[in-house]
Amino acid sequence: MGKKKAAAKNINGVPVILLEDLAMRFVLNVPAEELANPNRILFLIELAWWHYEDFSRKNDATLPKFSLSNFAELLYLTIPQLKRFAPKAKEIYGKFVMYKFSVPCAGAILLNPDMDKVILVKGMAKNSSWGFPKGKINDGEKMTTCAAREVEEEIGVNISSLIDENEFVFHTKKGVTKQETTLYIIPGVSEQTHFATYTREEISQICWHPIGNLDPNIKTSKRVKGVRYFGVHEFYYGLTQWIKSARKKNIKIQNSIDAPMNSPGQFIAKQYVESDDEDDDYGGGFTSIEALENRFMEQAAENVYGKYDERNMAAFRMESFSSLKNFSLDRQAIMNAI
């Protein structure tokens, strides 16, 4: 009897009371029309998942780790109000991912005064890639506002007054999502600038990287051992052309944008140095991740329409985007309020 009672209180190693608490705090306490939309429900579940990973598991090391898709299925099966979504869990998640990969992104490229180094950020995982500070735009948000918000969240500095909306590099991602990314160029940033990430469990390092390392045509044998780049190579040509033009005009700028000294995680970014702790990888993550994403999208469309072809993929993309385009959540604001 004791074992049966204990089992009833836990699902996949997670106390039911914890799942109910997360659902009530992040998912169920919304208007009825929100609960009727499975895509918007998954946005709310993502907030609950972030809290579970950032706080619940930190306080209880016995709690298992879940992917977002598995965590969503766990809530669908546990919470009575969400059980109707369980049979189509994979389809719902496929549309959600399609939308997220379609939303335009904005960020910034911070250059040192000599314009030969850029600031990049790295994720928390051991084999995470390095990329520019950037993020997805909220509905109705200006591109420059998004760029400033994302940069401040990720590296702690306010670049609002330094953004020139005419000085940027732009790229449209290949593949089914055609995601657009705009990066505003901020020159003249001192290498002694203080940076501080405000994110939780997202960024482990902020470092200066030589621009030459971003060249997509650089020979594998000349890449820095252990460094993975993602979403940077496609901006190399536009950035180097901008730098050439700036040098011809003899542009010299000094910008002071230190993060507040009372910020958490305060440090001065250093130039990236090879580490024996990192995997022996030469930037190969970019192509493989993009290919994996495209394969996932094809499978998601097949789950919805029964087969994959370009027409179905286009319909799938438009349906996913139109159902979510007016919905946005500011993770940082919500986490700060918790």
How are the SSEs placed, and which strands pair?
Layout lengths: L1 H7 L1 E2 L2 E2 H13 L3 H4 L2 H22 L8 H11 L10 H12 L4 E6 L6 E6 L7 E2 L2 E3 L6 H13 L12 E5 L7 E7 L7 E2 L9 E6 L25 H13 L18 E2 L16 H21 L4 H15 L6 H7 L1
Parallel strand pairs: 3-8
Antiparallel strand pairs: 1-2, 3-6, 4-5, 4-10, 7-8, 9-11
Helix pairs in contact: 2-4, 4-5, 4-6, 6-9, 6-10
Nutshell version of this structure?
It is found in: Cytoplasm. The chain is α+β, with helices and mostly antiparallel strands and 338 residues long. It is built from 11 helices and 11 strands.
Describe the overall structure.
By secondary structure, the protein is α+β, with helices and mostly antiparallel strands. The chain folds into two domains: 2-100 and 290-337, Orthogonal Bundle (Arc Repressor Mutant, subunit A), CATH 1.10.10; 105-283, Alpha-Beta Complex (Nucleoside Triphosphate Pyrophosphohydrolase), CATH 3.90.79. Helices cover 41% and strands 13% of the residues. It contains eleven helices and eleven strands. It has helices at 2-8, 16-28, 32-35, 38-59, 68-78, 89-100, 143-155, 236-248, 285-305, 310-324, 331-337; strands spanning 10-11, 14-15, 105-110, 117-122, 130-131, 134-136, 168-172, 180-186, 194-195, 205-210, 267-268. A four-stranded mixed β-sheet has the order 6-3-8-7. A three-stranded antiparallel β-sheet has the order 5-4-10, with no helix packed on it. α4 packs across α5 (68-78) and α6 (89-100) crosses α10. The two termini are 38 Å apart. The model is unreliable at 261-267, 272-298 and 303-329 (pLDDT under 50). Pfam families: DCP2 (PF05026), NUDIX (PF00293). Its cofactor is Mn(2+). Its main location: cytoplasm. Keywords: Cytoplasm, Hydrolase, Manganese, Metal-binding, RNA-binding. GO terms for molecular function: 5'-(N(7)-methylguanosine 5'-triphospho)-[mRNA] hydrolase activity; manganese ion binding; RNA binding.
